[in-house]
Amino acid sequence: MQKSLARAVPPLCGAAAYLAAWFLSTALPTRLLWHLPVEHRFTFEVHPLTLGADFYGRLVLCLGVGALAATAAAVSIKLRKFELRASWLRALLIWTFGLLLFTSGMYLNILASRRPIAAPLPPGYVAR
């Protein structure tokens, strides 16, 4: 039982940290790596003034946080800093599922109320 718990807890810690980072980086103004497709470059800021996609920066941030949490949990278990309990696995599953629901609900709310604004045409643009 202890071996299966030792294998299950680190990925669950990583998943919970990934979802928490995704939720917090969306809910709070966070400096992220933005891809600016029109300008063919990347920028690191809270919100660019031009058309941009924050998916790549948010994904890198959340994967890094999840990997750090999973590694920290695995190292702590390996060094026997604490004794594993089955109730922790249940609690981690509930937290991870709750974070998934909150993050999904927040994105549904953001996207449902979104009113996109067309980007202005570049100066000197001539329609053909």
Features:
8% strand; two-stranded antiparallel sheet; 128 residues; mainly alpha; 60% helix
Given helix and strand content, the structural type is mainly alpha
- Count of distinct structural domains: 1
* Broad shape: elongated
Q: What is the strand arrangement across the widest sheet? A: 1-2
Total strands: the figure is 2
Largest sheet: 2 strands, antiparallel
Helix/strand order = HEEHH
C-alpha-based Rg, rounded: 20 Å
Helix proportion? 55-70%
- Chain-averaged pLDDT: 87
Distance between the termini: 70 Å
Describe the model.
There is one protein chain. This protein is mainly alpha-helical. It has one domain. It is 60% helix and 8% strand. It is built from 3 helices and 2 strands, in the order H-E-E-H-H. The chain has helices spanning 2-27, 55-78, 86-112, and strands at 32-36, 41-45. The chain has a two-stranded antiparallel sheet with strand order 1-2. A hairpin with a 4-residue loop joins strand 1 (32-36) and strand 2. The radius of gyration is 20 Å and the shape is elongated. The N and C termini lie far apart (70 Å). The relative contact order is 0.18. The mean pLDDT is 87.
Q: Summarize this, please?
A:
The protein has helices at residues 2-27, 55-78, 86-112; strands at residues 32-36, 41-45. With 128 residues, the chain is mostly helical. It has one domain (2-112).
Per-chain topology:
Elements: H1 2-27, E1 32-36, E2 41-45, H2 55-78, H3 86-112
